Amino acid sequence: MLKLISATPSPYARKVRIVLAEKEIPFELITEIPWDSTTATPQHDPLEKLPILILEDGSSVYESHYILEYIEAKFPGKMPMLSEDVDERLFAKKVEVVADGMCDALVLRFFEKQRAEGAQSPEWQARQMRKIDGGFKALAEWVGDKEFIVGGKFGLADVAAGSVCGCVDVRFSEHAWRTNYPNLARYIDKLGERKSFKDTVPVGQNIKNKIV
Ligand SMILES: N[C@@H](CCC(=O)N[C@@H](CS(=O)(=O)O)C(=O)NCC(=O)O)C(=O)O
User: Fold this and answer.
1) Among 17, 66, 72, 202, which has the minimal tally of Cβ within 10 Å of its Cβ?
2) Domains of the chain and CATH, by start
């Protein structure tokens, strides 16, 4: 059986969990804290990051967007996450680029705030905030008043957009994105009714080791 190394707050891992659930692909969930010395990530990924999909032969697939590309290639028939139309496929991947980039900025902001007061860089935090805010603006424009971002069907773009918004609610709950973009809030709440979303709601984690 496939195994997925995941973490409870991870928006990247949540994308994979959602897609595996939507495609009804069985897998064993292995929940870790990648920042703790006990993590198995270095055994499977030279970059020491999760999510990691461990295949039945023990080999591994890592980097969430590549894991999703792998799953789509190997399990094409089951609930395709990408359109047959090349432009729609490319647009969905562009939405994932922005959503993942927002997640990256969230992680960088999160760890910058772990530094001692005097060591934190306001300029660096402001730069990450601009990326997060810019990403929300783009997502809200792409969503408009639609139920799904691409081609009128649930797919990769919705998985990525839903994962980053859910992550902000855990990692940066004071962010006013729901107020700023009520259409995006409505869209996310509707996505949240899917079983694949209900079963993967992010939860914070307590990191034991000193990271920065
Ligand atoms: N681009 C990667 C990012 C993955 C990532 O940064 N994962 C974090 C965990 S979480 O932020 O998603 O919870 C990690 O393993 N970090 C450990 C490290 O960077 O050494 C992806 O899309 O898979």
Assistant:
1) 66
2) 2-74 (3.40.30.10), 86-198 (1.20.1050.10)
